[in-house]
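During the second year of the project, the team shifted from modelling isolated chains to modelling whole assemblies. The rationale, set out in the original proposal, was that interfaces cannot be judged from single-chain predictions alone. As a representative example for this report, we include one of the complexes processed in the last quarter. Its constituent sequences, exactly as entered into the pipeline, are reproduced here:
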Amino acid sequence: MESKMEIDRIRRIQGEKKSLIVIPKSVWAALTLVGLVILWEILSKLLEIPAYILPSPIEIVSRLVKEISMLWGHAIATLTEVILGFGLSLLIGIPMAITIVYSRYLANSIYPIIIGIQCLPMVSIAPILVIWFGYGLITKVILACLISFFPVVINAVNGFRSLDKEMHDLGRSLGISEAKIFIYFRLPNALPHLFAGFKVGVTLAVVGAIVGEFVASERGLGYLQLTANARLDTELVFVTIVVLAIVGIVLFLIVHLLERLLMPWYHANKAGGDH
Amino acid sequence: MSNYLQLYAVDKVFHTKTGDIQALSNIHLNIENGEFLSVVGPSGCGKSTIMRIIAGLDKPSNGSVEVNESELKGIADGAAIVFQKDVLLAWRSVLDNVTLPLELKGITWFDRSNHQTNRAKALELLESVGLKGFENKYPHELSGGMRQRVSICRALIQDPKLLLMDEPFGALDALTREQMMYDLLKLSNKYKFTTVFITHSIEEAVFLSDRVIVMSERPGTILKELPIQLTRPRDNHTRSNDIFSENVNEIRDIFQSQGILAEN
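Output from the structure prediction step:
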């Protein structure tokens, strides 16, 4: 026991020393990205690639800066659809996962169907949604919801089911209700699975919103990209792609940050240390 | 000593897809107040099922369970369980893991009046198993033996009349295991609870117990009830005592005669 603590202590000290010399992973990724962008800039100048085929990074960035207020408006429209759609899939998905876990009937009837429907490309439903709900916000929200719904539900079901039998027995032996077992044991135990689902779900919700805007919209980044494409304004197409990438990364990071805040124990656990 | 718990003609049959499995057959068992009783038997003999029936987690298919001369319905009051896995909650600190039973049984989120007493009680228990200073650590920062100590504290904070232990040291290395036995004897002497200890280690059972129940293979029946005449307190020298080796050999002979152990 003592020796184990000692080893842990030594490891920690070694880890601290190491981190002084070793450059964090994110720096390597950023450097590589910057290098690739510079290469792109040089090649597009050297090979004299026309801007309607591939604009250079400097052109894209200057256009982005110039059009920032217009882009902001479209980005907000897309973000609204994503957040409403993803929120809706949580609002329906989590309670549904809970009922599937507790009801043998639903687990045997609804759950296999959900898994089956998941194989269907949700994007193909978009034209029908336009017929049903028109060109408004609802179509995009529903599409974003549909496409992010399945990873949320399936991960939540797996998470809620992953409670150890002995841990469940512990709860029972304390004489508490199944509802309390859920709050104190099952839910916190499922958090890692839930967040895995949220991360996939939120990125897919962006896909849903964009596809929705492709087929039915007068606003949003998808709409902007489609019209720019039609005008052969390749520069603006690339600008929207950049903005979309930023939106996707920011949403992912928000979920990631929430995960860290809610489960500090989990990451420390996986890293094998306490920092 | 007065009678605390009684199993009368208990059978247990599990209904599975591949047919019925009889786990226990005609178990009669009396447990005295303050007694340390071990149940030893081969894997799958239903010894854990006995513990689960005593705890009220499983219902007997036939027969009855009486606690203090009234029939057990539902979860047994005053019993605390230590499982083979420590089942600590990874998202709670050591201290919060220990106080969990009190939190769940008594106070709601709004009533914090007992908070300080619970805390003090938990700290006292942790200190008694040598975990002073670890109360704010998280389970993943502890070794296997330390984690199991925490789970014993979590059981003892309930002031149990009956401590049920289901192969609690089964997942630990041999040295830690031996240390845990001394710790358990110390705790049992201090808090005076009745213990039912499930194990597949003959030496462990003899070393710790006042009485050892020897079980057959499935369907589990009681082959022998062996009182252990070793004096208390038990210590390092207990194992070199003649009574110790006689008792261990006697149980080993029973297993050999049953074909559970064979020399070649």
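The two ends of chain A are 21 Å apart (CA to CA). Chain A touches chain B at residues 1, 4, 8, 164, 166-167, 169-176, 180, 184-185, 188-189, 191, 263, 265-266, 268-269, 274 (CB under 8 Å).
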